[in-house]
Write a structure and sequence with these properties.
Blueprint (H helix, E strand, L loop, with lengths): L3 E6 L3 H11 L5 E7 L2 H9 L4 E6 L4 H14 L4 E6 L4 H9 L4 E4 L4 H10 L3 H6 L2 E6 L7 H16 L3 E6 L6 H4 L8 H6 L6 H7 L1 E2 L5 E4 L13 H12 L4 E6 L5 H9 L2 E6 L3 H17 L6 E8 L7 H8 L3 E6 L2 H10 L3 H4 L4 H17 L5
Parallel strand pairs: 1-2, 1-3, 3-4, 4-5, 6-10, 6-11, 7-9, 7-10, 11-12, 12-13
Antiparallel strand pairs: 8-9
Helix pairs in contact: 2-3, 4-17, 7-17, 11-12
Length: 377
């Protein structure tokens, strides 16, 4: 690790002393200065190319977040780690928007602090192998395709990196229909040219969406084309995509066929979509048990509740008790916005970017960006 000079922003002497002792144990990292003055911190970091900035959010949170945003905007190479007494999603989201790469809870655990410094980065490490997220459900009508499409777009917008959306719902894929696309190429063409799966080939043949860094590969237009797609074909395609795209979002078909099982096996995260209806939850329970028995979903299957309403009779606590698992995210119910987006063939954010459901997808993308590289999947 190259010498990483560290500036600490805190108004707590005990926090400063603890961090200095931790830094003294990390090879390649050195303590440079501490301050509790925002302007001084911003000016000092302007002069540094390779630095670590640790900011304490436990006091004057908004002021500190504004300072972090100024530092991140002026020099994106500065690594910023936040410290907080809180442990909630809103704190993470606000921190990510301000350019803070990771938030550690106070009291600070030495191993987590050291890990945050050593595992932070880097565009190079991200490019080694793009992270694959499969959107899955064994039950239709739970919003799987909407999740895949809107999450993929928000990831592309918030990361500014190349993101791929792959429609693997062979018989009933709706990605192209949902956004009124007429792609020149589809997955069948890509697999017929599997010897050409280079970066340039994929970026030129995938459908680039609007003026974003999202690239879409649609399902075959004729359902019988899927019969010619083998498990080996899928494995080769996804492996090639992982070398080109920072994120690959896969809209899977329902069921546990060999092709989908291979995709789930290759995924870093599996977002299991469900609603709070009893049949959907029972189905989710059985599927999670099956994934755990196969060893595929033990550490990477996460539950997404779609169309959630605070007034529902079934509460999140009830769902977590039934499934014996924490809920990863909730997408609020907004029937009229969702239907308008589907009918107009555009993303949710294009209809109303300030709606509760648009904000939820945007915040989920920020949450995923922060956690998927930090979590040892």
């Amino acid at each position: 690790m190259a010498d990483l000079k560290t500036i600490i922003f805190t108004r707590q002497e005990s926090t400063l002393q603890l961090l200095q002792s931790y830094i003294g144990e990390i090879e390649g990292v050195s303590f440079l200065a501490s301050t509790d003055d925002c302007d001084k911190a911003v000016n000092a970091l302007k002069e540094l190319n390779n630095a670590l900035f640790v900011v304490d959010l436990s006091e004057y949170e908004e002021e500190v977040l504004n300072m972090a945003n100024k530092v991140s905007s002026a020099n994106p190479k500065i690594k910023i780690i936040g410290l907080s007494l809180k442990n909630d999603t809103n704190t993470y989201i606000k921190a990510m928007r301000s350019g803070i790469e990771e938030v550690l809870q106070i009291p600070i655990v030495k191993d987590k602090f050291i890990e945050a410094i050593k595992t932070k980065d880097d565009s190079e490490s991200k490019q080694q192998k793009g992270k694959t997220i499969s959107i899955f459900s064994n039950k239709g009508g739970v919003g799987k395709t909407s999740m895949a499409m809107n999450l993929a777009l928000e990831l592309a917008k918030c990361t500014k990196e190349n993101v791929a959306l792959l429609d693997l719902n062979f018989q009933l894929g709706d990605v192209a229909t949902f956004w009124n696309l007429n792609p020149t190429f589809n997955i069948s063409y890509m697999l017929e040219n599997s010897n050409k799966l280079s970066k340039d080939f994929m970026l030129s043949t995938f459908e680039k969406y609007d003026n974003t860094s999202l690239y879409i590969l649609a399902n075959p237009p004729f359902y019988k084309s899927a019969d010619r797609v083998s498990v080996e074909n899928i494995e080769k395609l996804v492996s090639a995509m992982q070398k080109v795209f920072s994120y690959i979002i896969i809209d899977t078909s329902t069921g546990f066929g060999n092709k989908i099982m291979k995709v789930l096996e290759m995924s870093d995260l599996i977002f299991f979509m469900t609603t709070v209806s009893l049949p959907a939850l029972r189905n989710c329970q059985k599927c999670l048990e099956m994934l755990e028995e196969t060893g595929i979903g033990k550490d990477k299957a996460e539950i997404i509740i779609n169309r959630y309403m605070e007034t529902d009779d079934v509460k999140i606590e009830d769902v977590e008790t039934l499934l014996r698992k924490k809920i990863y995210w909730k997408i609020p119910n907004n029937y009229f916005i969702m239907m308008e987006a589907i009918n107009k063939g555009v993303p949710i954010s294009y209809i109303n970017s300030s709606s509760n459901v648009a904000k939820s997808y945007r915040n989920l993308a920020l949450f995923v960006e922060n956690n998927i590289y930090r979590k040892n999947l």
